[in-house]
């Protein structure tokens, strides 16, 4: 992904660059702080179950508009309810995925489990949804919020335009005058005034200081933000419940070390770990069997170990009477069976709640054994996070279907809520083999740079971007295309800062970055009732502006947390 030359830049939380000696010292301290506070991962290149590297992080929090952050937080319970209703709409899921499952084997396997579970009736009617709605600011939004940014390309142009406007008045001869000298003097004064005005305009923009929305629009200066768009919604293995808050902990430490403790008030509270774990415990309470355990389904090797162990440790420390087990799908196949009332038993242990941190990609199912284990769990009495219908509701294809006009009305009653949710979708297009799908195909071939092509996969690294899209599409048959969806590329504003990575050169350099905010939500209920529904914290991931994707575990992204800015804030100090 490349950012255009005039991509707006959000102003920084503090003035950068830092002096080199200060930067070296605080970065070294922050690395240790990160490891010692569990902002860490296992190394992929030198894996050892006995050691950790700090997870890549951004040294100072990246700015994010407060208004948009608050909007995202406020909307989450509505998104929770939407997804809960979607998950329980058999007809919608079935028709939406009908074409996809003909060509996408993985989604078809999930759907087969769903079909079998439907045929026998759900043993457990309650589902636990722990969602994460991922979003990016869209800098191409037509509304403007003028003060909170600095334009890279816009400043000089605006200054020149202002000068030209004044000189234009002069050459138009509209100023009048009585004698030649006086005329010359007036001209001179006007040119000087124009230059001064241009200088001031430039300064005004550089300092991100006051100017009106109309003025900015007239100058053609791009907006740094105004709206955000949803990138995707995750219904399975929504990670960073620990690493989200941990990022804030590191950056809070760094800001304080740098003498900016006064800025901490603009870093929003983040109780994601507690919010998510309490969700599991609420489900455990509903299951109401004091000896039953919470089961985490894990990958064969967990690199992102802190983001799972901290959940386990939080539960064990806060609710010592609840035991947590970790098992792979293969383990469950070996050890698991159903009891008399279809309770899931691992040996003698009854399982109350299953939290899937694996099972979202084909590589997690090595053989039929793992699929059988998934089915066993789905048919059991345990409360699943997610249950199979929630998993299917989180597919890209369902997200694309939800973004179509009038679809939200099926799931949300309140017209204001429909309007608010409708606004978060950017263009999402079906590639099914029909008139609309074929038109999207043609559109993608014609202007691929505007789009991202997505399959029904999670976990990063699966999408195709921009100029690579035509080749990818041409390699597919007409029907194969229905395994994919097309989406408008979102163009987030830039931030500038230091990205700190294990093994990277010291001191870090200032780089251009873009961020993706994830808002967590917890929803518990059955087809008829929702018993718990709340927003549960957030996480911010930041990547180089030149990178297509920003997975932290994949090594491209970095932990970050939002520094909330208002449109009338003063320049950073
Ligand atoms: P996954 O399920 O693999 O996480 P995503 O839809 O979240 O798939 O895409 C992965 C990454 O690609 C995102 O985290 C984001 O960085 C980038 N991305 C996805 N969709 C868009 C988009 N519409 N515009 C810009 N970047 C996008
Ligand atoms: Mg994603």
TrEMBL record:
<feature type="binding site">
    <location>
        <begin position="487"/>
        <end position="490"/>
    </location>
    <ligand>
        <name>ATP</name>
    </ligand>
</feature>
<comment type="similarity">
    <text>Belongs to the eukaryotic GSH synthase family.</text>
</comment>
<dbReference type="Pfam" id="PF03917">
    <property type="entry name" value="GSH_synth_ATP"/>
</dbReference>
<comment type="pathway">
    <text>Sulfur metabolism; glutathione biosynthesis; glutathione from L-cysteine and L-glutamate: step 2/2.</text>
</comment>
<dbReference type="GO" id="GO:0043295">
    <property type="term" value="F:glutathione binding"/>
</dbReference>
<feature type="binding site">
    <location>
        <position position="516"/>
    </location>
    <ligand>
        <name>ATP</name>
    </ligand>
</feature>
<dbReference type="InterPro" id="IPR005615">
    <property type="entry name" value="Glutathione_synthase"/>
</dbReference>
<feature type="binding site">
    <location>
        <position position="549"/>
    </location>
    <ligand>
        <name>ATP</name>
    </ligand>
</feature>
<keyword id="KW-0317">Glutathione biosynthesis</keyword>
<dbReference type="InterPro" id="IPR037013">
    <property type="entry name" value="GSH-S_sub-bd_sf"/>
</dbReference>
<dbReference type="GO" id="GO:0004363">
    <property type="term" value="F:glutathione synthase activity"/>
</dbReference>
<feature type="binding site">
    <location>
        <position position="543"/>
    </location>
    <ligand>
        <name>ATP</name>
    </ligand>
</feature>
<keyword id="KW-0547">Nucleotide-binding</keyword>
<protein>
    <recommendedName>
        <fullName>Glutathione synthetase</fullName>
        <ecNumber>6.3.2.3</ecNumber>
    </recommendedName>
</protein>
<feature type="domain" description="Glutathione synthase substrate-binding">
    <location>
        <begin position="292"/>
        <end position="393"/>
    </location>
</feature>
<dbReference type="InterPro" id="IPR004887">
    <property type="entry name" value="GSH_synth_subst-bd"/>
</dbReference>
<dbReference type="GO" id="GO:0005524">
    <property type="term" value="F:ATP binding"/>
</dbReference>
<keyword id="KW-0460">Magnesium</keyword>
<dbReference type="InterPro" id="IPR016185">
    <property type="entry name" value="PreATP-grasp_dom_sf"/>
</dbReference>
<dbReference type="GO" id="GO:0005829">
    <property type="term" value="C:cytosol"/>
</dbReference>
<comment type="subunit">
    <text>Homodimer.</text>
</comment>
<dbReference type="InterPro" id="IPR014709">
    <property type="entry name" value="Glutathione_synthase_C_euk"/>
</dbReference>
<feature type="binding site">
    <location>
        <position position="541"/>
    </location>
    <ligand>
        <name>substrate</name>
    </ligand>
</feature>
<dbReference type="Pfam" id="PF03199">
    <property type="entry name" value="GSH_synthase"/>
</dbReference>
<feature type="binding site">
    <location>
        <position position="308"/>
    </location>
    <ligand>
        <name>substrate</name>
    </ligand>
</feature>
<keyword id="KW-0436">Ligase</keyword>
<feature type="binding site">
    <location>
        <position position="465"/>
    </location>
    <ligand>
        <name>ATP</name>
    </ligand>
</feature>
<feature type="binding site">
    <location>
        <begin position="454"/>
        <end position="463"/>
    </location>
    <ligand>
        <name>ATP</name>
    </ligand>
</feature>
<dbReference type="GO" id="GO:0000287">
    <property type="term" value="F:magnesium ion binding"/>
</dbReference>
<keyword id="KW-0479">Metal-binding</keyword>
<feature type="binding site">
    <location>
        <position position="396"/>
    </location>
    <ligand>
        <name>ATP</name>
    </ligand>
</feature>
<keyword id="KW-0067">ATP-binding</keyword>
<feature type="binding site">
    <location>
        <position position="458"/>
    </location>
    <ligand>
        <name>Mg(2+)</name>
    </ligand>
</feature>
<dbReference type="InterPro" id="IPR014042">
    <property type="entry name" value="Glutathione_synthase_a-hlx"/>
</dbReference>
């Amino acid at each position: 992904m490349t950012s255009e030359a005039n991509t707006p830049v959000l102003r920084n939380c503090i003035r950068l660059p830092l002096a080199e000696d200060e930067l070296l010292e605080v970065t070294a301290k922050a690395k240790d702080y990160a490891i010692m506070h569990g902002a860490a991962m296992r190394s992929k290149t030198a894996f050892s179950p006995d050691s950790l590297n700090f997870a890549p992080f951004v040294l100072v929090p990246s700015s994010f508009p407060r208004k948009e952050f608050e909007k995202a937080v406020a909307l989450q319970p509505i998104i929770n309810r939407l997804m809960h209703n979607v998950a329980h709409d058999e007809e919608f899921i079935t028709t939406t995925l009908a074409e996809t499952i003909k060509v996408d084997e993985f989604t078809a396997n999930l759907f087969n489990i769903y079909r079998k579970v439907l045929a026998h009736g759900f043993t457990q009617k309650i589902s636990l949804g722990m969602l994460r709605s991922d979003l990016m600011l869209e800098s191409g939004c037509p509304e403007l919020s003028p003060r909170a940014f600095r334009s890279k390309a816009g400043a000089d142009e605006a200054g020149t335009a202002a000068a030209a406007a004044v000189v234009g008045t002069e050459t138009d001869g509209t100023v009048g005058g009585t004698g030649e000298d006086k005329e010359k003097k007036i001209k001179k004064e006007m040119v000087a005034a124009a230059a001064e005005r241009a200088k001031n305009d430039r300064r005004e923009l550089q300092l991100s200081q006051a100017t009106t929305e109309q003025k900015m629009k007239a100058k053609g200066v791009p907006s740094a933000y105004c709206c955000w768009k949803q990138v995707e919604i995750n219904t399975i293995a929504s990670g960073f419940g620990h690493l989200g808050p941990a990022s804030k902990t590191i950056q809070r430490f760094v800001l304080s070390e740098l003498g900016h403790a006064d800025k901490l008030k603009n870093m929003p509270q983040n109780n994601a770990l507690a919010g998510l774990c309490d969700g599991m415990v609420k489900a455990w309470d509903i299951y109401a069997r004091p000896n039953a355990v919470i089961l985490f389904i894990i990958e064969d090797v967990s690199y992102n170990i802190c983001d799972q162990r901290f959940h386990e440790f939080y539960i064990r420390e806060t609710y010592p009477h609840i035991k947590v087990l970790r098992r792979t799908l293969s383990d469950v196949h070996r050890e698991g069976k159903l009891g008399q009332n279809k309770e899931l038993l691992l040996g003698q242990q009854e399982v109350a709640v299953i939290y899937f941190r694996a099972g979202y990609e084909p590589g997690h199912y090595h053989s039929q054994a793992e699929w059988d284990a998934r089915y066993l769990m789905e048919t059991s009495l345990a409360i699943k996070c997610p249950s199979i219908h929630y998993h299917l509701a989180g597919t890209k294809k369902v997200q694309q279907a939800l973004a179509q006009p009038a679809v939200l009305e099926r799931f949300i009653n309140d017209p204001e809520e429909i309007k608010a949710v409708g606004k978060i979708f950017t263009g999402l297009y079906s590639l099914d083999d029909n008139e609309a799908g074929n038109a999207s195909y043609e559109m993608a071939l014609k202007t691929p740079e505007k789009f991202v092509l997505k399959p029904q996969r999670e976990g990063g690294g699966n999408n195709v971007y921009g100029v690579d899209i035509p080749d990818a599409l041409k390699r597919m048959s007409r029907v194969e295309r229905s395994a994919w969806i097309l989406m408008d590329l979102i163009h987030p504003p830039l931030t500038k800062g230091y990205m700190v990575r294990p093994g990277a050169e010291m001191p870090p350099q200032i780089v251009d970055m873009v961020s993706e905010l994830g808002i967590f939500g917890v929803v518990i209920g059955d087809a008829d009732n929702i018993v718990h529904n709340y927003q549960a914290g957030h996480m911010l991931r930041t990547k180089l502006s030149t990178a297509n994707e920003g997975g932290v575990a994949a090594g491209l992204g970095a932990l970050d947390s939002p520094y909330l800015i208002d449109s009338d804030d003063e320049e950073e100090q």
